[in-house]
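Give me the fold.
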Amino acid sequence: MKVFGVVFTIRTRKAKPITCAECRFDGQTLTLTSIQTFASFEAFENWLATPGPWIAGLDFPFGQSRKLIQNLGWPKDWSAYMALIAAMERDEFVQLLEDYKDKREAGDKEHLRDTDRVARSASPQKIYNPPVGKMFYEGATRLYRSSLSIEPVRPTHDLRIAIEVYPALLIRRYLGRTPYKSDIRAKQTAEKQTARIELLRALQAKAFYHEYQLQLGLSPEFRDRLIEDVAGDELDAVLCAIETAWGWNQRNENLGIPKDVDRNEGWIVSQELQ
């Protein structure tokens, strides 16, 4: 099976593109075959049209919280409320979220989805630090306009499957709070490189295989490339691919997604949430 791991960004440009790790997965070994980048949203959308079969894990939220949907009076159907959002410009959507927060009491401004509570991820309403709401807008609207099977919010019989993943879960597991990347040159230290080495060592250890029931196949060239990846986007894309491969192995168990999931919110696929 072809497996992709995608690290998203809201400011697509050559210096900070969307990053995609392409892998081959035989059910046991996940082999990194290429890393590509998309310097524009148009290039990303063109990639979404790549013929299947494949499964891709993308690191942005696919839905909004049940509470926000209810409070705004949006339809209780992902495609229906996404149609409303996709009709807006990004600035309009951001303003809608800001206006909503202005009317809420402190502590009740940005709501979490069920999966965010479990994964300890940020609210998809959050606009700054990190700009998850903007990532949701740019990413989920493009998924909505595609014909992909989007799990669990819009499952279809399409041979191209998109799932939501969160590489921070693997980082927390194996590095804790140890920093391993930076976009700022002055902060690209030897200590962070050592952390990347330790992370890759953990991902290729027997203990990881026993837990995830898969192993990561890296050529020496790709291993060196990931170690030298000071910004961490390529490494994060590989982490996304790992979570995606794990999900694919759970395809007979709803891709590892709880059966009682709120399909309008979406769910982060990860062994770490089992």
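Residues 2-61+163-249 form one domain.
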